[in-house]
Amino acid sequence: MRVAIVGATGAVGHELMQVLERSALHIDELLLYASPRSAGSQLTFRGQALTVQVTPEGPIPADVILASAGGSVSKALAHRWIEGGGVVIDNSSAFRYDAGVPLVVPEVNGEAALTHQGIIANPNCTTAIAVVAVAPIHREYGVRRMIVSTYQATSGAGQKGMDELLEQTHRVLHGQEATHKEFAHPIPFNVIPHIDAFQDNGYTKEEMKVVWETHKIIGDPSIRVSCTAVRIPTLRTHSEAITLELERPATPDEIRALLAQAAGVEVRDDPEARLYPMPLTASGKYDVEVGRIRESLVFDGGIDLFVSGDQLLKGAALNAVQIAEYLQTHGALRSAQRA
Ligand code: A2P
Fold it and tell me: Where along this sequence does the record place binding of phosphate (predicted)?
C-alpha cells in the first residue's frame, strides 16, 4: 500500500517516519509532502533517500494520508486529498468535533475508526495520553469526575517550540534576556498556565479539548472533566496529575493490577525505589507510564495517579500509525486510485 505524510519535515512528521519504519504496515511506497519551503529536500526511509514534494491541493495518490501540517492546511485541503480514494488520519483539531469524523485511540475505541467516511481525527496529545490510563478504569469502576493538571513539553508546539526552548535557554545561560514567539511568555526556567486561546468560560482551548475529547473517545459525556494545562520547559513528553472519583470504590492495588493488563500502559509505581513516571524515562517509549497510584484524600474510594506519555508518539505519530494498522487489520482501508 501507499502511505503519504503531509508535514513530513515537522516534529511529528519525523516521528511518523520512525514509527512507520518499525510498523507492521506493508508499505510499498512512502510519499512525503511539506510546504514549498522544504520541497526538494531529502529524507531517509528504510535506508532510501526520498524527496519531499509540495503538498498537493488536489487528490493524493495514497491509501493512507497521515496529516500533520496544522489545522488550517487540513481544513482547506483534506477533503481534496481523499478524492484519490485514500483515508486521511489527521493530527490537527480541524475535524475532531465533527459528527461524521471518528476521534480514535485504538486501545479505547478502535472500532469507531471503522465508521470513517474518509477522515479520521487523531486526538489532542494530552487527551490521548490520559485516556489510555483512564478508559480501563472507567470500564471497570465508572469514572464520575476527572480532574487533570498537566505538565506539557515544548514539543506540543512542534519543532519550533523545541527550538525556542533550546535557543532561549542558551541565551539566558549566556546572560541575555529570553524572548518568546511560540509561547505566551519566555519558557526557560518558567511554567506557563496558558496553552492555546482563552475561552469565554476562563478555561483555555487546550483545557477544553481534554473535556470534549475525553467525552467523545470514551463515549460518555456524563463524566465531569476539568483540566488546567501548563507548559513547562522540557523538550518532549507530557505528564499529567489525574484525580478520579469513581462509581465503585477501588483500591490502589486493584488499579495497579488492572492497569498492568491494559494495552498501551506501563505501570511504573515503586516510590521506595524512586520509580514513577517521568519525561526522562517515558520519552521515546510507545507505552504511557502510569504511577504514583494512591487513594484520593478528596473522593472516597477515588484514585490519584500520575502519567507521562511521549507527546510526539502516543500523543501524535504513534497513535496515527496505530489507527492505520487497525484499519488495515480490519480491512477498512479504501483503495486509492493509482496515479
Ligand atoms: P515546512 O518544514 O516546509 O515548513 P511543526 O509542527 O514541527 O512545526 O511542522 C509543521 C509541518 O507542516 C512541517 O513539515 C511544515 O513544512 C508543514 N507545513 C507548514 N505549513 C504548510 C503548508 N502551508 N502546506 C504544507 N505543509 C505545511
Answer: 96
CATH at residue 15? 3.40.50.720
Residue 9 labelled as part of a binding site:
yes
Domain check: are 292 and 321 in the same one? no
Reported as a single tens digit per residue, the pLDDT across 142-194 is 999 999 999 999 999 999 999 999 999 999 999 999 999 999 999 999 999 99
Q: ipTM score here? A: 0.98
Specify the CATH number for the domain of residue 257.
Answer: 3.30.360.10
Question: How does the average pLDDT of the chain come out, rounded?
Answer: 96
pLDDT band at 336 (very low <50, low <70, confident <90, very high): low
Cell numbers describing residue 256: 495497579
The partner residues of 110 in beta bridges, in order of sequence, read none
Q: What is the DSSP string of 64-127?
A: EEEE-S-HHHHHHHHHHHGGGS-EEEE-SSSSTT-TTS-B--HHHHGGGGGG-SSEEEPPPHHH
For residue 162, the model assigns a pLDDT of 98
Q: Is 165 in the pocket of ligand 1 (CB under 6 A)?
A: no
Closest atom of ligand 1 to 13 CA is: 14
Which domain does 228 fall in, by range? 127-311
Instruction: Tell the residue number behind the cell numbers 519531499, with chain if given.
Output: 52
For atom 25 of ligand 1, the residue with the nearest CA is: 35
Is 71 annotated to bind a ligand? Reply is: no
Give pTM, 2 decimals.
0.96
